[in-house]
Amino acid sequence: MAQQPSPRPTACLALADGTLFFGHGFGATGETTAELCFNTAMTGYQEIMTDPSYAGQIVTFTFPHIGNTGVTPEDDETADPVAAGMVVKWDPTVASSWRATQELGDWLAARGRIAIGGVDTRRLTRAIRQSGAPHVALSHDPEGNFDVESLVAAARGFAGLEGVDLAKDVTCAQSYHWNEMRWAWPDGYLPQTAPKHKVVAIDYGAKRNILRCLASAGCDVTVLPATATAEEVLAHDPDGVFLSNGPGDPAATGKYAVPMIQKILNTTDLPMFGICLGHQMLALALGAQTIKMNHGHHGANHPVQDKDTGKVEITSMNHGFAVDSQSLPEGILETHVSLFDGSNCGIRMKDRPVYSVQHHPEASPGPQDSFYLFERFAAHMAARS
Ligand SMILES: NC(=O)CC[C@H](N)C(=O)O
Predict the structure, then answer these.
(1) With a 6 A CB cut-off, is 321 part of the ligand 1 pocket?
(2) Which of 103, 265, 293, 326 is the least crowded, having the fewest Cβ atoms under 10 Å away?
């Protein structure tokens, strides 16, 4: 039997070091540049693509079957995809799920996001692990015409994420009130139906499920834009302040967020809780430092140890920067560590209800081990009232 000719490549991924990957384009056509990371989660591709923390990044999925359950608006973490593009091993099949309202490719196309299928994602992931998250250009042309030299030049021209504040691009334009609860509950957990605690949540690129978890732990949540000042936060007379996840370099976003956090810490005794970028900026405000990681942590099976209890949580992670635990000043305790590489995953003030974690306790990577962190925030606010 005559062999079928392999289809002409319609997408090209160019790394700044000149390495090229050809494959099949889906989603939008055109060209985009970004930093490339890999995510090891087996499910949740839609939540990943719509997590604002992924702004400025293209995601390589190490799990080969991506897209085969389509997309549904219920799974959006924000209204639009925020990750710059996606790289997958197999082209998505026709969506097979009773929840699907659209094919992944159509959804990406309607939202201007480029994807490439048919890539040796194992080889690509090994390259990322060895040399660090590369700068890349991704092109999708149905005619298959690629100027590879200009693509490599575009990858080299990408400025990277260090020193870049992306929170201002993804934060809300205006404050709003949030009261929707989460849909899935940890075993035996009863949702708090009557909100008891007034929380101001600062949106540096907040995922919706974080806001749902706060509401479910009994918080009446007012969301404020990233550039909110301490005066604007305190004008709401909150019982607690929450610092959200978000994209980019914490040191850059911290230029306006850190003074705001410091002012609240210096002028009030309010409980404060931060997640991911919020964790990193709280650490900066307390005098610690953050560093860029080689290839970051992105996945849904990251073991994290709670140093207070010794318990291990299986967590979702998505970060390319980390708090340098060596830089934590006196009075700031390390509460959680990654069991993959020992990097910092949580801090708290020794004598105040101010704490934060690097992982994503709102995500449900199968287990829901980390939800207690929201209940702890509510308990701190209850103890104060
Ligand atoms: N998920 C997040 O909040 C990410 C924080 C930060 N942008 C990082 O990459 O480390």
Answers:
(1) yes
(2) 326
